[in-house]
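Q: Sequence in, structure out?
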Amino acid sequence: AEKIDGIIISLPNFGDERAAAGAIQMSGLKVPVLVQASPDDPAKADANRRRDSFCGKISVCNNLNQFGIPYTLTSLHTMDVKGRPFREELENFKALCRVVKGLRKARIGAIGARPAAFNTVRYSEKILANYGISVETIDLSEIYGRIGSLKDSDAKVRDKVKSINGYIETKHAGEKPVLKMAKLGVVIDSFIEEADLDATAVQCWTSMEEYFGVVPCTVMSMLSNALKPSACEVDATGALSMYALQLASGKPSALLDWNNNYKDDPDKCVLFHCSNLPKDVFTAMTMDYQAIIAGSVGKENTFGTCVGRIKPGPMTYTRLTTDDLGGRLVAYAGEGAFTDDELTTFGGYGVAEIPNLQDLLRFICLQGFEHHVAVSLSETAEILEEAFSTYLGIETYHHSQ
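A: Exactly. Output:
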């Protein structure tokens, strides 16, 4: 049973409407179910050759409803199992199964305390636990202590230095900050392995800069690019959102701020972070200092940000959060595109175009969602909505045209 991530009910004919629902109920499996019916050929409509899958699918779904078994439908009521459209449906169903399986046992690492100024990233661990999601915590003092036990010459440290230099242009930072980042990376890698984590959320300011002398952005970027999402500002549900999006798309995801308007266009905005975006989302990137907090902690203590523009093209955005007063998880998801509109700024950034953006922003504000949003260069909003709402019991707003 542990190896079964999903079930496909395939109807070549009307079938036995009770059998599928009964078998799934008796199995005890709580996995996604896809219902497919094969099309009839009007030239073969005689009693011996007509298959009636069209009708049988309705009856099977009726029985699944009676048994309380959630299920997913193909985009067309009947689909040929040998056709390309159905193969595409299968790929989407596989992604759906990944999201459901992954979130039901997700493990998030919270590294440090949230920034005192950011109530927005508060969340309920108890609500997450009710959905099967664990949060493993570690204090920054433990991180610093473990870093202190590492030598510059340690093999893991030297290997991490090479990895950083191979991942991003570091000439603006110099050797000393890169060495510090390497030690931080080694320690976080170790924490991820020992706690069996799927994603992390890191206290990225200002303790790290004041008492260690770098920003963790490059280390976090490398994790996200390696499909171990890492979120800023101890935004644990932001990390969970990144993880869900990654499971759906199979691509690295980023956490960004809904940050600025773009000129007078109501359907465009600037998405930005300082940044720790994964390399795969950039057109090109380089390492620099964190321009926002350099004035308070000193430029020399803020090297490690990943600076560049996000690639133009289709994108999906999503956000999961705990509704603490309602005792539940809620979410939104939708699709848009990054454009190549002119913009000169710092950090990691892109101009996003989203249909009816003002309605989405109104929803975000009225429902009390965070200013952080998870993004990937994919088209997977329908997969996320189906996984969240149908199988995980997460009320989801799908923003669309």
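The radius of gyration is 24 Å.
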